[in-house]
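Would you kindly consider the sequence and fold I have copied below?
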Amino acid sequence: MSDSHARESSRDIQLENIAANLADAAYRVALQHGVGERWLELEVDLWGAMTEAIEQRFCLQRVNPV
């Protein structure tokens, strides 16, 4: 594996970890407000949405540094 592929893989893992931590925090807040029986679907949806948002932001920053 080349250095660039290793860095990209590491970056992807870091983004997933950040998204998972954010989803967990949002999920805990949602539980306090009552989410009913669809709690697992909610957590997975939060994780996916946050991963996508972080990836979009990261890609935009790489193309157009703030």
